[in-house]
Amino acid sequence: MASPRPELSLSLQFADASHRAQLPRHKVARWIRAALEAPAEIAVRIVDAEEGRALNRDFRGKDYATNVLTFDYAKEPLVHADLVLCAPVVEREAAEQGKTIEAHYAHLLVHGTLHAQGFDHERARDAKRMEARESAILAALGFADPYED
């Protein structure tokens, strides 16, 4: 019997509601839980390009909207984080990569959840480990490997 997934307290916010239909709460929770290794309190906020750009500029010093930003506040005893996804960037990247918006959101939510738990991809060895973990989680969720050409 599979072990139960860690507890998740989820806040789902839509500052940009253009993809609300593709992001029902139960799916978002399922994707995040699949990547969790510990109980968590996570807020997911879907934003427009203006808010995405402002947050990336103010917190990372990069003056453009990016697909996902992870603000991790604690890893123990609970993972406590905010995941901010920029709807127009997600939509553009999904089209460029030939995947559905849903599949791209699932990948980015798994990616952000792993960041919230300390995974990163700054060094090649860490990137390989994180990408392998993402690919395995997404396969278990029924999505194609996002790193396969």
Question: Can you characterise this structure?
Answer:
The chain is an alpha/beta fold. The chain contains five helices and four strands. The chain has helices at 25-35, 49-60, 87-97, 101-116, 124-140; strands at residues 8-14, 40-47, 68-74, 79-86. A four-stranded mixed sheet has the order 1-2-4-3. A hairpin with a 4-residue loop joins strand 3 (68-74) and strand 4. It is globular and about 35 Å long. The protein starts with 7 loop residues before the first strand and ends in a 9-residue tail after the last helix. The mean pLDDT is 95.
Order of helices and strands: EHEHEEHHH
Q: Taking Cα atoms only, what radius of gyration do you get, to the nearest Å? A: 15 Å
Low-confidence stretches: none
What's the helical proportion of residues? 40-55%
- Largest sheet: number of strands, sense, barrel closure: 4 strands, mixed
Count of helical segments? 5
Distance between the termini: 34 Å
Shape: globular
Strand order of the largest sheet: 1-2-4-3
* Average pLDDT number: 95
Total number of strands: 4
